Amino acid sequence: METKQHVLVVDDEVAVRTTLCVALEQAGYAVSSAADGAEGIEKAVREHPDLLLLDIVMPKLSGMELLARLRENEWGRTAKVIFFTHLEGDDDIIRGITAYEPSMYLIKGSWEIADVVAKVQEVLGTSKVQG
Q1: Helix/strand/coil for 73
Q2: Are 74 and 48 in contact (CB under 8 A)?
Q3: Residue 50 CB neighbour total at 10 angstroms
Q4: How far apart are the first and last CA of the chain?
Q5: What is the pLDDT of residue 18?
Q6: Which residues make Cβ contacts (< 8 Å) with residue 35, sequence separation at least 6?
Q7: pLDDT at 129 (0 to 100)
Q8: Which pLDDT does position 64 carry in this prediction?
Q9: What percent of the chain has pLDDT over 70?
Q10: What is the mean pLDDT of the chain?
């Protein structure tokens, strides 16, 4: 049996986190989640997911800080990451994206859940439902 690709969803908004987890599970991914950046970095380093979906603005540790720490970890240097946030065109975010190289950046409110699943499939190279 083929192992499912693993996605870690890190977002402090319960509704967003839950909705993304359900949609990704329905698309055939193994999914875990974290409610803030501190829990997210701990799970990422322990679980080594195939992809992280990171909110940028979170308590305890922002998505940007999480990614900066992840890039210091041997495994995390090449981890695939999709950022999503309500912030648009913020200079700090643009600098962070340049410095830490996430795979993709999405603005909340400008996408549907199906769009996020499609972006996950694109980044992971899985264009069909996994078994």
Answers
A1: coil
A2: no
A3: 20
A4: 8
A5: 95
A6: 11, 12, 14, 17
A7: 47
A8: 82
A9: 76
A10: 82
Q: What global pTM score does this model have?
A: 0.83
Residue 29 in 3-state DSSP? coil
Angle between helix axes 14-26 and 113-124 (nearest 10 degrees) is 60
DSSP assignment of 2-55: PPPPEEEEE-S-HHHHHHHHHHHHHTT-EEEEESSHHHHHHHHHHH--SEEEEE
Question: What average pLDDT does range 40-61 have in this prediction?
Answer: 91
Measured from the Cβ of residue 69, the count of other Cβ atoms closer than 10 Å reads 18
Query: Token digits for 75?
Result: 């495994």
Return the beta strands (E) in 11-95 as ranges: 30-34, 51-55, 80-85
Running DSSP on this structure, what letter comes out for residue 125? T
30-34 and 80-85 beta bridge pairing: unpaired
Please state, in angstroms and rounded to a whole number, the distance separating the CA atoms of residues 72 and 116.
27
